[in-house]
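MFS transporter (Streptomyces cyaneogriseus subsp. noncyanogenus), 422 aa
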Amino acid sequence: MPGGAAMPRSRTASVGKPGHRPGPPVDTPVPARWVWLAAWPVTAVFVLSNAATPLYVLWQREIGFSRGTLTVVFACYIAGLLGSLLVSGVASDRLGRKPVLLPALGLALTACLVFATAGSVAALLAARLLTGVAVGAVVSAGMAAVADVAGPHRGRLAALLASCAMVLGAGLGPLLAGVLSETLPAPTATVFAVEAVLLATAVAVVLRMPLPRPAAPARGAWVRVPGVPRGSGRRLALGIAVFAPGITATSFVLSLGPSLLAGLLGTTGGAVAGALAFAMFLTAAGAQFAVRRLGHRPVLLAGAAATAAGMAALLVAVHASSPPALTAAALLAGAGQGMGQLGGVSLLNSGVPARRLAEANAALNVGGYLPAGLLPVSAGYLSDAVGLTTGTTVFGGALFALAVTGGLVVLADRGRGAGRSG
């Protein structure tokens, strides 16, 4: 799933200090191709994050479980991700990116094996938990690695590539799984065999990535709720205010979107659900490119407006039985997440020191993914109890209110620099 990184201020931080590996000389920037390659592990792991989405209908038919159970499977991913964020950001800042990224990719490969052989709800829960842990490490260490490789003179490019790598991977996963599930035999095994190959290439990239060892001092607990340095709290709060409703909206589409499509279109085909998810995240990436030159405040306000409009479209879709409205809801939700994520990442990039960049990423994602795990689960069980239309209506109304509130928080902020271009 759906789902920032802070930029380093200087490439000299890791040079000439005890216990640190020498980084590239200050006047020798890393070739531009490595900035793009550094984003590939983020993309590869996020392909896995949503690859199961079009396959849930198959598993429901083969194993047999309710919509509520389906959202619990999704929430297990969120639980693993949040647990990972409690340690991965701090560990990455203290130990380096590779010591966190390589184990994360190993867990992702293990998740592929469990998914490919899953024959029970317990197996799906385990696979989603492993996936969540891997994703949590990648949104902390992987996105920060893009920043480290880029250097301070390519900060805007690094922020954009890191954020787009996340949403593009999240969209490619369900598209790939949806198409393969309808064109090849043994779809659940085939999908994750292909994903394992992608993850193997990501391992090769990480092993060769030109990364210096960071200079964060080993102070405080290793396992803790991630945060930001004093003075950066407002930046974090503004980012969460818009990113959280956006990623919660896309999480709902991923978890219950196939059920809505089945009700509106009378189809259980994985390709349709996969295409909708891909379009949602492609819109997220496109929105980020479209607003990349705007200041932080306009980007965040646009993100909040898109999420609110998406929830309005969702209500129209379920009450008017309108597939076009559901498509519009998904696309607007994607735009809301994309702009909220980019705005939050950019705010942190412009104010958080390099030695705390991975932990800052983790803090932003904890604030976003916590409601993204809780609210769709509540909507799933409510839908089992009172019907999908009523459950979706309650969820859409609540998230509309949260998105509007986030926009008002951004409008109310008049702090110096936090809401301006940086």
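Residues 197 and 330 are 29 Å apart (CA to CA). The chain has one domain: 32-216+231-412. ok done for today
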